[in-house]
Design goal:
The complex is a heterodimer. Chain A has 14 helices and 16 strands. Chain A is an alpha/beta fold. Chain B is mostly helical. Chain B is 71% helix and 2% strand.
C-alpha cells in the first residue's frame, strides 16, 4: 500500500479553509444577501395612518412590551470578538436613556414611561441575531415593544421578515444600507446613517466642482456594501468628464489590500475612492502612500471615520474627504455647541466608566436615543402602529448631535430618515475632521440616486 | 494618451511580484512552522496561526506597554513563544497524543484555534479599541528600483530563519535526533532518543517562527486585530501543501509562489475579483495531481 500523510491531510485542509471562509463571512460590515418577499406593501386604502403602512394583517398586540410605566426595547449587537467596537453605540444611547429615566421618563399621551433596553451579544453573526431577537421579542412578539438599533446589514435583513409579520417595529437599523428603503418591509426603519450611495454622490459632486476631469480609482468590498458605492458613484458621474479608471474589490473581511492599491495607483488615477471598511481602509491609505501614488483627492467610507481607524492611518489620512451628519466630538468648532455640551455632561454623569465620549459612534448612539424620545413624545398613542406611523412621518432637525441643517424627515414617499450630508476633511495633525462647505441637501432624493436593485435587496 | 501618468506594464508587473514577495514571505514563515511541527509530530497544527497571533500581541505588549525597542520586543516575544510552545505541547497535546486516533490531537488544535483567538482578544484588546498599531521594524519607503525596504528586510529575516534551522537540523545532535524521530519514531526510540522530548522541542521551535511571522505581518498593516492570522493561515497551509508538508524548502518556495500568484491574479484576472483564494487552491490541486507529496516532499512508502 502506497499512501502518504500529505494526501490524507488534504480533505482536512479544505474543510478547514471552508470553516475559515464561513467565519470570515460573518464579520463583514455588509452582507445583505437574502431576497425576501414581504406581503405588506403600502396601500393607502387600508387601515393606515399618514405613513401609508398597512396594519390590517397585524396581530392584536399593538401595546405588547409595555409593563406599567416601562417600555421594553430589544437589541442585539456585537459585544465580543473582532467587531465589539460597535458596542460603543449602546453606551451612547444607554447614557441618554438613564438620564431620561431619572428625570421621570418619556411622556406619551399624557403619561410618563421609563425606557428599558434588553440586549444580547450576537458577535456580528446574523443567525445569532435571529436567536437573540426571537428570545427578547418572543415568538408572538409579546415581550418587547420594539427592536432598537440592531447593528449590521445582514443582521437586520435576517430579522426583518419575522418582525414585519408580527408587526414589531425595528427602529433605527444601524447601517447605511439603501435596502432600508425597500417598501416590502415597512416595519424596518434605518437610523440616521445616510444610505451609502449618497456618500458616493457627495464625492462625485465635490469632484464636479474641484476636479472636473478627475480620473477616479475605486477600492470596494466585494458585496452589496461595495456595490452601493460603485453603482452610486458611476450613476452620479454620468454626463460629466469624470471617469473611473478601475474598480478593485477585496474579499469581505480581508485586511490585505496592497496588491489592489498597487493596481489602482498604476492606472494613473488622480482621485482615490477608498470604499473599504474596518482595517482594510487605513491599510489602503498606507499602501497608497507607500506606492507614491500622487493624487489630488481621496475619499474614505463613512464607516472609516472613527477615531481609531483614522488614528491608525495617521499622516496617510491627512486631507482625506468623507461625509457624516453627526457632529465630531473632537472638532473644536463644536466645543461650545449647546448639544455637544449636553452630550458631554450626560456621558460624564450617566455613561459607564469604559465609554469614550470622543468616539464618534458613541455620539451616534446618543443621537438615536434622542430621536426615539422625540418620536415617542410626538406619537398620539403608545401603540406600535402609532409609533411607527409617527416615525415614518417625522419632520424635524437639530436632535441629538445631528449637524445643524440635517433633517430627520420621512414621508409615505420617502423611506429614508437622514439624507443630508456634511462633507468633512481629516486634519491628521489635529486628529479631527473639519467641515467643508455647507450641508448637502439630498432630502427625499435617495431613491432617485440609488440603483433600484440595491433598494430592493 | 489618457494613461500618460500610468505606470509602465513591466514596472507594474515587477511591483506586483514584489507585493507578492512581501506577503509570500509571511506565508512562508507560517508554512515553515507548520512544516516543523508536521515533521516532528506528523500533525497539522490548525492553531499555528492563532498561536502566532498570540505571540504578536506579546511583541506588541513588550514594545508598547514595556517600552522596549521593537527588535528587543520581538526577541523577547520569540523567547516567550519558545517556552510557551513547549508548555502547550506538554500540557495540552501530550495527554491526548497516545490516544488511539491521531484525530484527537487535531481536534485539540482546532479547539486551541478558537480558544487562543478569544483569549488574545480578551487579554490584549481593551474595550472600544478596534485595532492596535505595531511599531515598524524596517524603515518605510523604497530601498532601490522601487523595492520596499520592508520587503527586503522580511526576506532577510526569512533567510536567517532558514539558515538557523538548517544549522540546527543538519549540524547538531539535537537536530539529528529531531530528524530521527521524524523519519522513524519507533527506531529512534530503540536507539535511545527520548521521542517525547523531541516532540516538545518541535512545538517549541515552531512557536517562535510563528511569532516572527505574526509580528512582521502586523508591521505590514496600519493596524492589526485578532483576525490578523486567519487568512494568512489558509495561505500558509496552501504554501505547505504546495511545497510538501515535510520540506522546509518547499514551505518557503510554496509561500512565495502563493503570494506572487495572489497578487498577479488581483492585477490581471478581473474575473476572480474577490475570490483570489481559489488560485492557490487550484495550484495545489494541480501540483498534488502531478506530485502527490508536493513540489519538494518525499514519498513515504509504507510496507504492508
Amino acid at each position: 500500500m502506497h499512501r502518504t500523510r500529505t494526501l490524507r491531510a488534504v480533505p482536512l485542509l479544505l474543510a478547514f479553509a471552508l470553516l475559515v471562509a464561513a467565519c470570515g463571512g460573518g464579520r463583514s460590515d455588509d452582507n445583505a444577501d437574502s431576497k425576501d418577499n414581504g406581503s405588506k406593501t403600502s396601500d393607502s386604502t387600508d387601515s393606515s395612518g399618514g405613513s401609508g403602512v398597512d396594519t390590517s394583517d397585524c396581530p392584536d398586540n399593538d401595546t405588547a412590551g409595555i409593563d406599567g410605566d416601562t417600555i421594553t426595547l430589544a437589541s442585539s449587537f456585537p459585544q465580543s470578538g473582532l467587531t465589539s467596537a460597535f458596542a460603543q453605540i449602546s453606551k451612547g444611547y444607554k447614557a441618554y436613556f438613564a438620564k431620561l429615566n431619572q428625570a421621570g421618563g418619556v411622556e406619551v399621551d399624557g403619561k410618563k414611561y421609563k425606557i428599558e433596553v434588553v440586549d444580547k451579544d450576537d458577535e456580528y453573526n446574523a443567525s445569532k441575531t435571529v436567536q437573540n431577537i426571537n428570545e427578547e421579542v418572543g415568538t408572538d412578539g409579546d415581550k418587547a415593544f420594539a427592536v432598537f438599533n440592531v447593528v449590521g446589514t445582514a443582521n437586520n435583513v435576517a430579522i426583518r421578515e419575522s418582525l414585519d409579520e408580527s408587526c414589531v417595529p425595528n427602529l433605527f437599523a444601524a447601517t447605511g444600507s439603501p435596502a432600508w428603503g425597500n417598501p416590502d418591509f415597512p416595519w424596518l426603519v434605518g437610523s440616521t446613517l445616510a444610505p451609502y450611495t449618497l456618500e458616493a454622490v457627495a464625492y462625485a459632486n465635490y469632484l464636479k466642482d474641484e476636479q472636473p476631469d478627475a480620473k477616479v480609482a475605486m477600492l470596494v468590498q466585494d458585496d452589496d456594501f461595495g456595490k452601493a458605492y460603485e453603482e452610486g458613484f458611476k450613476d452620479a458621474i454620468k454626463g460629466t468628464k469624470i471617469t473611473v479608471t478601475k474598480v478593485a474589490t477585496y474579499p469581505t473581511g480581508s485586511n490585505e489590500v496592497a496588491s489592489q492599491v498597487t493596481s489602482l495607483a498604476a492606472t494613473g488615477a488622480d482621485a482615490f475612492f477608498d470604499g473599504a471598511t474596518l482595517l482594510a481602509c487605513p491599510n489602503a491609505l498606507e499602501e497608497a502612500t507607500s506606492s507614491n501614488w500622487e493624487r489630488t483627492s481621496t475619499f474614505v467610507s463613512g464607516t472609516c471615520i472613527s477615531k481609531t481607524l483614522m488614528g491608525l492611518a495617521g499622516q496617510n489620512a491627512d486631507g482625506v474627504l468623507a461625509t457624516t451628519n453627526i457632529k465630531d466630538p473632537l472638532n473644536p468648532a463644536f466645543k461650545d455647541d449647546a448639544a455637544m455640551k449636553e452630550y458631554r455632561a450626560t456621558l460624564a454623569e450617566f455613561g459607564d466608566d469604559k465609554v469614550d465620549p470622543d468616539n464618534g459612534i458613541v455620539a451616534y448612539g446618543y443621537t438615536q436615543a434622542a430621536l426615539l424620545q422625540y418620536v415617542l413624545e410626538q406619537s398620539p398613542k403608545l401603540t406600535r402602529s402609532s409609533v411607527l406611523d409617527t416615525l415614518r412621518t417625522i419632520d424635524t432637525k437639530g436632535l441629538g448631535l445631528l449637524i445643524d441643517g440635517v433633517d430627520a424627515k420621512m414621508s409615505a414617499d420617502d423611506p429614508y430618515l437622514a439624507e443630508n450630508l456634511q462633507l468633512i476633511q481629516y486634519d491628521a495633525g489635529n486628529k479631527y475632521f473639519t467641515n467643508v462647505g455647507d450641508v448637502i441637501d439630498f432630502e427625499g432624493k435617495t431613491a432617485d440616486l440609488t440603483p433600484k436593485d440595491l433598494i430592493d435587496s | 494618451m489618457m494613461i500618460f501618468a500610468a505606470t509602465s506594464g513591466a514596472q507594474l508587473f515587477f511591483d506586483q511580484v514584489m507585493n507578492g514577495v512581501g506577503t509570500g514571505v509571511i506565508y512562508a514563515s507560517v508554512a515553515l512552522s507548520l512544516v516543523l511541527i508536521y515533521r516532528t509530530t506528523g500533525l497539522l497544527n490548525f492553531a499555528q496561526g492563532e498561536l502566532a497571533l498570540f505571540s504578536t500581541f506579546i511583541t506588541y505588549w513588550f514594545a508598547h506597554e514595556q517600552g522596549l525597542p521593537i527588535v528587543a520586543a520581538l526577541l523577547a516575544s520569540v523567547a516567550v513563544s519558545f517556552v510557551g510552545g513547549a508548555l502547550i505541547e506538554r500540557v495540552l497535546i501530550r495527554p491526548v497524543e497516545g490516544a488511539s486516533s491521531p484525530l484527537n490531537v487535531v481536534i485539540v488544535t482546532l479547539g486551541l484555534f478558537l480558544a487562543v483567538n478569544a483569549l488574545a482578544s480578551l487579554i490584549f484588546i481593551k474595550p472600544g479599541q478596534e485595532a492596535l498599531q505595531m511599531p515598524r521594524i524596517f524603515p518605510t519607503g523604497d530601498l532601490a528600483l522601487g523595492i520596499r525596504t520592508s520587503t527586503v528586510g522580511f526576506a532577510a529575516v526569512l533567510v536567517i530563519e532558514c539558515l538557523l534551522l538548517y544549522l540546527l537540523l543538519q549540524k547538531t545532535k539535537l537536530g539529528l535526533a529531531l530528524r530521527a524521530v521524524a523519519s522513524n519514531p519507533e527506531s529512534a526510540k530503540l536507539v535511545g532518543i527520548n521521542t517525547g522530548t523531541m516532540l516538545m522541542v518541535g512545538w517549541a521551535l515552531a512557536a517562535p517562527i510563528g511569532a516572527v511571522a505574526g509580528s512582521l505581518a502586523a508591521t505590514r498593516q496600519s493596524g492589526f486585530d485578532a483576525s490578523l492570522m486567519q487568512q494568512v493561515l489558509v495561505y500558509a497551509f496552501a504554501a505547505a501543501a504546495l511545497g510538501g508538508f515535510d520540506s522546509p524548502l518547499g514551505a518557503v518556495v510554496g509561500g512565495l509562489i502563493v503570494g506572487i500568484a495572489d497578487s498577479l491574479t488581483i492585477q490581471y484576472v478581473d474575473a476572480l475579483d474577490g475570490i483570489e483564494l481559489v488560485v492557490p487552491f487550484v495550484l495545489i490541486l494541480v501540483v498534488l495531481l502531478v506530485r502527490p507529496n508536493g513540489l519538494f516532499g518525499r514519498t513515504i512508502v509504507e510496507r504492508v
